[in-house]
Design brief:
Radius of gyration: 17 Å
Strand content: under 5%
Structural class: mainly alpha
Largest sheet: none
Number of helices: 8
Order of helices and strands: HHHHHHHH
Shape: globular
Length: 172
Amino acid sequence: MGGTALPYWLEFRLELAYAWITHSQDQVSPELKEKMKRIIVGDEWDRNAYYFLSQSMILMDFDDAASLVNSAYKAYDKNPQTDIFTLQWISFVGVNFLNYCYHHHAGEKYTESSIKFLKSLPITPDLGFSKVLALYYEALFNGDRKTQQSLIHLLKEIGYYSLIQDTVKEDV
């Protein structure tokens, strides 16, 4: 029985999952990195572009991802959306980028804009969780252990601790 090549979409999903789990691009080919950047670059920011960026930023070099995230924020600011799915995907861009920043030891220069952006989004039940995560990452980056511990406790209570577990040190 000869080996068959994986369909491209499956290969992409596997590389994507591996990169998020390991917080590493070791298995990502330079061709895939470049392809991800080309797919998103441009002024056509919509729900699909926000979704794609939120999921695939881990496959890009950090500076490329940071540039695209800031471009997404600017596009949203120029044309704020009220469609809940678009709002959710742009909020996931911010949350996922904060996680990416944490694992790349990025400074305030990178994290501040995402925290500010997430806090500026409309107050709706659909975005509440992203705002909680923004507060968590703000506490994490600022060394506010009291707030961080409160939010860790809350996330454990509601069953979402696994979303931030990779950022929690044992002594917190």
